[in-house]
């Protein structure tokens, strides 16, 4: 059977399936498609509503309540039901790819290189399988597995930045903090 005959066979099979659809089946399919589109719209609307609610919550928690308590000269507030409202500092930080080298250099030069996770890996090109196996064997014989990627775990970095700022470390200047994309804010906490 040649290619044209195969194409003709598939086209005829597809035509038979389409022509076999009656008005009821088309109506059911149309209703199902409408239902899918409606649900997709509801999902989008719900996600947008959730995003707006999170933004409103963040505004109140990180800006409105801390400002109101500060205006009243208060750090915390106790309610009759036993709840306590406090404002605590929080830190957000991450090392961008473009700042990674500078941030890691600063960590090493200031005695904090031990928080850098260092992974080592080696890539070999086509036809270098034997060399790859030899290298792997040598590394394994010395108790090492090759791979390299340097990073600082986000939780470790956040704790490190908080410690540096709250301890008043003068080496961790605002200019250096830019390499760590440091954001410092306040957040309201309600406990019962």
Describe the structure.
By secondary structure, this protein is an alpha+beta fold. The protein contains 6 helices and 5 strands. 56% of the residues lie in helices and 15% in strands. A 3-stranded antiparallel β-sheet has the order 1-2-5. Strands 3-4 form a two-stranded antiparallel sheet. The mean pLDDT is 86.
Strand content: 15-25%
Morphology: flat
Mean pLDDT: 86
Overall SS class: alpha+beta
The count of strands amounts to: 5
Taking the sheet with the most strands, its summary is: 3 strands, antiparallel
- What number of domains? 2
SSE string: HHEEHEHEHHE
How do the strands line up in the largest sheet?
A: 1-2-5
Number of helices: 6
Instruction: Give unreliable regions as ranges.
Output: none
How much helicity do the residues have?
55-70%
Backbone CA Rg: 30 Å
């Amino acid at each position: 059977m040649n290619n044209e005959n195969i194409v003709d066979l598939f086209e005829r099979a597809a035509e038979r399936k389409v022509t076999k659809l009656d008005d009821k089946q088309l109506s059911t399919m149309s209703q199902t498609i409408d239902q899918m589109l409606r649900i997709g719209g509801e999902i989008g609307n719900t996600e947008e509503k959730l995003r707006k609610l999170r933004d409103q919550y963040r505004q109140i928690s990180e800006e409105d309540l801390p400002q109101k308590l500060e205006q009243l000269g208060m750090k915390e507030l106790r309610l009759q039901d036993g709840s306590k409202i406090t404002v605590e500092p929080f830190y957000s930080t991450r090392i961008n790819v473009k700042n990674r080298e500078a941030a890691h250099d600063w960590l090493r030069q200031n005695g904090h290189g031990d928080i850098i996770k260092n992974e080592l890996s080696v890539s070999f090109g086509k036809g270098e399988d034997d060399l790859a196996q030899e290298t792997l064997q040598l590394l394994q014989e010395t108790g090492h597995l090759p791979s390299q990627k340097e990073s600082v775990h986000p939780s470790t970095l956040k704790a490190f930045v908080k410690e540096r700022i709250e301890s008043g470390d003068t080496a961790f200047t605002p200019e250096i903090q830019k390499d760590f994309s440091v954001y410092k804010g306040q957040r309201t906490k309600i406990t019962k």
